[in-house]
């Protein structure tokens, strides 16, 4: 963990939709910000510069190495705001912020993984780098991808790969996994990628860059990563906390009246619940949509940072209650 934190270069992860995020969240001097997914601190550093020395930034990340790196990066800024570190799942960030007696004016969740996590073979996130089938953002969380792949039933694997990977060949892939398990446990990323390849047809992306050829294991790896890190459950819990707070007339809570909340998502499974909850709050008059339509990267950003290609930013501003 320290190894990753110490030797990580800030440029190893380019923050997505940075200017657009700053413009939509509009942090001002003296405010309190919560970055639910601090990562390497790219967005957080930009927000920190806007809120300045009279403000505070709470940094949350499941990955202790990333959190340590982001906190050090903010602390090294000239005129840095106060920094509070929250290691763990952002699903718990609202409760932990309230326990610290902090209320956020600005909240950001930039979902998924950071580039150095994907590039580190030991994290097991990449099908092209040989490594253990781990995939956990938080190394203390209980379930690894290897445990799922080696213990779920064929039906459970097919459902998981279909639902979280939106993979049409999920049944064929699940069958291949069960067959492979008969020879012994599936232990490495490249072993898994090869088994999936034997069960899946050649694939193309279906998103903004429709038609681009992708590795046959892309969707299966996505499904396992989402399951291992309970990514959709965590997002649902965060959105539920925003909804609860927006609906209640609390004297004090983890969100200040008029707070802005932004989410950057990378696929439709993430964007759909954000769109639904933000839309529902706007319809009930509990929030305003700062972004009427999701903000997507320019062609220039996609060229410079291909990882940004499927990003969507949505931001709301809570309506202050009487
Ligand atoms: C896309 S990166 C964030 C990058 C960051 N915005 C930056 O500019 O450097 C996502 C980060 O969120 C963390 N993460 C993902 N899901 C999480 C969750 N449910 N709770 C806490 N951290 C999470 C990952 O460990 C990763 O460091």
Report mean pLDDT, rounded to a whole number.
93
Uncertain ranges: 1-6
- Report the CATH superfamily of the largest domain: Vaccinia Virus protein VP39
Number of helices: 14
Strand content: 5-15%
Radius of gyration: 20 Å
Q: Which CATH top level class of the largest domain fits?
A: Alpha Beta
| Gross morphology | globular
Described by its quaternary structure, the protein is single chain
Helix and strand sequence: HHEHEHEHEHHHHHEEHHEHEHE
**CATH architectural grouping of the largest domain:** 3-Layer(aba) Sandwich
Characterization of this structure:
By secondary structure, the protein is an alpha/beta fold. It folds into two domains: 2-115 and 231-318, Vaccinia Virus protein VP39 (Rossmann fold, 3-Layer(aba) Sandwich); 142-228, DNA polymerase, domain 1, CATH 1.10.150.170. Helices cover 43% and strands 15% of the residues. It has 14 helices and nine strands. The chain has helices at 2-7, 18-25, 42-51, 64-75, 93-99, 115-119, 145-151, 154-165, 170-181, 189-199, 218-228, 231-247, 268-283, 299-304, and strands at 32-35, 56-61, 82-87, 104-110, 203-204, 213-214, 255-265, 287-289, 312-318. Strands 3-2-1-4-7-9-8 form a seven-stranded mixed β-sheet, with helices on both faces. The chain has a two-stranded antiparallel sheet with strand order 5-6. Strand 1, helix 3 (42-51) and strand 2 (56-61) form a beta-alpha-beta unit. The chain binds S-adenosylmethionine. S-adenosylmethionine (SAM) is lined by residues 13, 15, 37, 39-43, 60-63, 66, 89-90, 110, 112-114, 137, 229, 231, 234.
């Amino acid at each position: 963990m320290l190894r990753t934190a110490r030797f990580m270069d800030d440029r190893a992860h380019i923050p997505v939709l940075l200017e657009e995020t700053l413009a939509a969240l509009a942090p001002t001097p003296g405010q309190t910000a919560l970055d639910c997914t601090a990562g390497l601190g790219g967005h957080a550093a930009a927000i920190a510069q806007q809120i300045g020395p009279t403000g505070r930034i709470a940094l949350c990340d499941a990955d202790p190495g990333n959190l340590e790196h982001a906190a050090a990066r903010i602390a090294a800024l000239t005129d840095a705001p106060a920094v509070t570190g929250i290691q763990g799942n952002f699903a718990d960030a609202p409760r932990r912020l309230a326990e610290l007696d902090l209320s956020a004016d600005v909240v950001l969740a930039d979902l998924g993984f950071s580039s150095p996590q994907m590039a580190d073979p030991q994290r097991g996130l990449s099908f092209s780098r040989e490594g253990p089938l781990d995939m956990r953002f938080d190394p203390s969380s209980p379930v690894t991808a290897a445990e799922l792949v080696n213990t779920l039933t064929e039906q459970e694997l097919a459902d998981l790969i279909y639902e979280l990977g939106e993979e049409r060949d999920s049944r064929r892939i699940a069958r291949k996994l069960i067959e492979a398990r008969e020879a012994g446990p599936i232990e490495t990323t490249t072993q898994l990628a090869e088994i999936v390849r034997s069960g899946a047809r050649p694939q193309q992306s279906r998103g903004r860059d429709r038609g681009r050829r992708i590795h046959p294991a892309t969707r299966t790896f996505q499904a396992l990563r989402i399951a291992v890190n309970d990514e959709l459950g965590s997002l649902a819990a965060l959105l539920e906390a925003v909804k609860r707070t927006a609906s209640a007339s609390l004297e004090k809570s983890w969100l200040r009246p008029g707070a802005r909340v932004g989410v950057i998502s990378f696929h439709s499974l993430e964007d759909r619940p954000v769109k639904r909850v933000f839309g529902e709050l706007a319809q009930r008059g509990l929030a305003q949509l700062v972004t009427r339509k999701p903000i997507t990267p320019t062609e220039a950003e996609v060229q410079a940072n291909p990882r940004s290609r499927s990003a969507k930013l949505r931001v709301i501003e809570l309506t202050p209650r009487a």
